[in-house]
Write a structure and sequence with these properties.
Layout (H helix, E strand, L loop, with lengths): L11 H25 L12 E2 L3 E3 L3 E3 L2 E8 L4 E6 L5 E6 L20
Antiparallel strand pairs: 1-2, 2-4, 3-4, 4-5, 5-6
Length: 113
């Protein structure tokens, strides 16, 4: 068996729209994090981290609270989770980016996106 046969083929034409959409959402999350997080040297306050379900941020400060964003590649969702006494998890976009099926309530940090 050739090493090239271990991984399945992934022609760009088959998933280019998905790649472009994911890139756009990652830019939005990155810019939001850049604007709200305290600066650290070498841009350590900006990266996304690998999680069990995809990619995630660390908590991002927002006023007196914080929120965390996760790109869930298993359920195909972008979620924002807030901490505190009223812990909340909101789906910003579901499979196919259908934001209408997952409306974001007023006052949620998801409004930043």
């Amino acid at each position: 068996m050739d090493d090239r046969d271990i991984w399945p083929r992934l022609p760009l034409a088959d998933w280019q729209d998905t790649r472009d959409t994911l890139h756009m959402w990652m830019q939005i999350v990155g810019k939001t994090r850049l604007a709200l997080s305290p600066r650290q040297n070498h841009w350590w306050h900006v990266p996304l981290y690998v999680s069990a379900r995809g990619l995630t941020t660390t908590p991002i400060p927002y006023g007196s609270r914080a929120f965390q964003v996760e790109f869930d590649f298993i359920d195909h969702r972008l979620t924002i989770e807030t901490g505190g006494p009223r812990d909340r998890r909101e789906a910003v976009a579901g499979a196919g980016g259908d934001r209408q099926s997952n409306p974001v309530p007023r006052g949620s940090p998801a409004r930043l996106l």
